[in-house]
Amino acid sequence: VLDGLLAQCGTVENCEQVNTDSETAVVNVTYASREHARQAIQKLNGYLLENNALRVSYIPDETSDMDGTQRGTENGRRPGYGPRGGLRGGSPSSGMPPKPPHADIPVRLLVPTQYVGAIIGKEGATIRNITKQTQSKIDVHRKENAGAAEKPISIHSTPEGCSAACRMILEIMHQEAKDTKTADEVPLKILAHNNFVGRLIGKEGRNLKKVEQDTDTKITISP
């Protein structure tokens, strides 16, 4: 049904479903031209398909800006819409300059509650030091999920700044685990936005396998 709808708007070069674990179906679509993609967004955004409203937007893609030929659209069957490039054309933000890709995508970590104190440090000295050294904005969500075994931490920075802050936080947790003899190993838990998990895994798991091989790590994505 979706293929037929997409074909009405222009020539579809590629159509790929990127996640199957949730009730939301996310599909990446590549059209032969920008004009076809623009028509698809105008016609299909909000279109009711089997009582589900389609949400359609451009996928930010650096290569398409260079060659000027291809644009993607995303079809998601869900009531809400997450931050993926913004709905251009008809959105309240149309006409705004595009933001850099990391501007609104923090790295979110999940850390064991017993290590939060060590990460913050005395009167916040440790977290201030991490923030300063990595030029990041770091939020420790201590009050979220009262009584939970883990707490989220959000890091806003450049990709390099986020990586450096992650490394420093992980080192603090390892040291704390060693000092208190609470765990032999503390994994780094990253909360990934549903919109990006498909791209993170890649076709037939290729992206994830490459990351694991290049970094000599074992990565598990929770369902």
TrEMBL record:
Annotated keywords: mRNA transport, Repeat, RNA-binding, Translation regulation, Transport
The UniProt record lists the keyword Transport: yes
PROSITE patterns per record: KH_TYPE_1
InterPro entries linked: KH_dom, KH_dom_type_1, KH_dom_type_1_sf, Nucleotide-bd_a/b_plait_sf, RBD_domain_sf, RRM_dom
Highest taxon listed in the record's lineage: Eukaryota
Residues covered by region (Disordered): 60-103
Transmembrane helix among keywords: no
Entry similarity comment: Belongs to the RRM IMP/VICKZ family.
PANTHER family: KH DOMAIN CONTAINING RNA BINDING PROTEIN
Protein name stated in the entry: Insulin-like growth factor 2 mRNA-binding protein 1
Organism of derivation: Goodea atripinnis
Gene: IGF2BP1
